[in-house]
């Protein structure tokens, strides 16, 4: 890390991100093209409507959509797309939100298995608009008849979430979901925040597709709304109402445009080859160690990205998977691994947000902590419950 690193100047820990695209760590490495576009526009004035028109053209081309715009986040995109589906272009109705009492339609159907939390509840992003969530089926079982039965004359939209967060079986496929919704005249909104596929959801029946600008695209914090012109326009017009608090500045719009255009030109094969080198290094570092089972696994939602799944047998390795993850995070430099399922005795190492050379530091830190554990006379095993409570307590202590 260079001494000019703003993090050391501000007393912040220089973390290495081996966990993927995490909002809590600053999302992703913003690509140079986006940094340059933001730098270039920050000191200039621009007509924002025109800048969003320019964004619309780029989004339309990248996503195979009729139109698009940039908002504060994908989460904001959910709220605005739902709001637009309720109000259309009626400015008076837009100003009345979240009061929906005079609107003919204010319900949004969502499969129960899609009502997840991406840092905040999906359900709340819908409710902020004033809409009511109608849950479809059960968490692990949804069928076309559940969806058809949930849709009424009050249904404004059907929301579909594509993510590793959702229940991974028993859900209605998007094509069938869209078929049932469309047969009843209901538009389909897809939350594909973290999904690399910019064209597939619209091609498979979605009317609106939502993405984060700051995740795989490597843009600044923002959300991309893409889809049918009337729905995109109705969502955009919410900027005169509830969208004001989700306002995005010229720099984020410019950055999203540049990131999307750079994505189209990126050498994706070279990126994958670099990620593969990191995975192979970690695999060779861990293979043959007592109690450690490393395996390269594909992304659960088929993004073109592999991770290293590291399963730890605490008795043989003398440390639990979560204590290893925590030791890595406490270390020098801190390495944050992907540990959201760590109670099952594994975590993942994700190479997609590493700077050149950081994979070597990750390998060294794994070696140091596992060697230390192997020499320990006792198994390093913090009770999971204590770990949960400590995490929650640390969050509640902020700003102290
Ligand atoms: C990250 C994520 C979001 C939130 O995206 P932001 O742009 O950070 O608001 C929404 N849905 C899913 C499935 C996500 O993974």
TrEMBL record:
Keywords: Pyridoxal phosphate, Transferase
A Pfam family assignment: SelA
Superkingdom of the source species: Bacteria
Record's keyword annotation contains Nucleotidyltransferase: no
Cofactor: pyridoxal 5'-phosphate
GO molecular function: L-seryl-tRNA(Sec) selenium transferase activity
Modified residues annotated as N6-(pyridoxal phosphate)lysine in this record: 215
Family stated for the protein in its record: Belongs to the SelA family.
Designated name of the protein: L-seryl-tRNA(Sec) selenium transferase
